[in-house]
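Input:
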Amino acid sequence: MTQQNALEDLAYIRQVMEQTRRYTAAKGVFFVIWGVAVSVSLVLTWLQVTGGVGGNQWAIWIPTTLVAWGLTLYFAWRQQRESAVPHHAHLIGMNWTAIGIAMMFMFFVGVARGTIGYPAINGLAALLVGIGIFNTGHLSGIRWLAGVGVAWLVCGALMLAWPGLHTLLLMAFLLVIGQIVPGLILMREERVRRAAGAPA
Amino acid sequence: MTEFDHTRLDDLIHSRIRLAVMAVLASVERAEFSFLRDQVNATDGNLGAHLRKLEDAGYLSAEKRFVERKPVTDYRLTAQGRAAFDAYVARLAALTGTK
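Output:
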């Protein structure tokens, strides 16, 4: 073996590891599930608060949250059956599980008990989403996604600085452009990889 | 530059297919046989023989399970395998004077 062979081996190892890492990147389906569930709930809540729709807010949030958790558990179970599980998939899953639980407590305990006021809830939620998306982008090596996470953090700070009813609609809009659209892009990239013959 | 001496490299890892298998497994928690085969572009028989060598050396572990009633085998690096791979890459880098 020559030094040139050794250098080629090193380059080969890096290429194989990078290729494997790319094949098994972040899953967009979870972004879409939660983006749709929460944005629909926010719009319905806004209509309710402004008088367009009657009823109780819990009648909106409890069903959408339960459906989203159900779909999340189903796709997480399917992910476990995939042909390879990268190290960062586990970390990303834990990251979102912790954020999801924090959101549940914030909403179903903090808001329900009056500890967290309505003006703060959307700003705080945006900060948590920002942390989740930034971590996902960083761990998966997807720079643009980490950038989306930073944008969420900035928007969270702005919503805390200028709270109000409008943040319900603003948050729903942000979920569409900052979570559902990135989720669809990730899903399309995965479909393209699979169509090109990459393993599932 | 450091004097180049290839005899200081781990012979078991020092085969193109086994090196590729170790590199793939170093990037994932676990991988199925079919995933490894597609990643390293090997035939079933050839890959199976290389995997057995690595398993016999204690570098990787195999676990059988069923997916939709079909048997699949998952492979993962053992702690010994990860240490051997890290040492191999570090030695290769040192021998070639790269980082």
